[in-house]
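Sequence in, structure out. Go.
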Amino acid sequence: MPLTEGHGRSQGLVDVLDRVLDKGLVIAGDIKVSLAEVELLTIRIRLLICSIDKAEQIGLDWWKHDHHLAPGKQALSVENEELRKEIRLLERKLASLSRRRTTAGTMK
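Output:
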């Protein structure tokens, strides 16, 4: 079955995309805005395109800690902190009860 030209292009695009995500692609550039030879604005652009697996291999994992990208984690952190406070309170109450029992036992 012969390949149509459109199918061949999409297959080629898939191959290119697969390679870019596997190996990574870095685009870097600077944009400078000047008026009368006076620099008014500089924008530095650094763009990395790769798969999540590749990013983790090279030590990038900022998306795991960004609460804008993982809003559920913030709620979990709040709940986690509340539970820790509750545990500390219960531990103090337990320690207090243990001291009372020890004191009551020595008085007999």
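Check: The first strand starts at residue 25 and ends at 35. Residues 1-60 form one domain.
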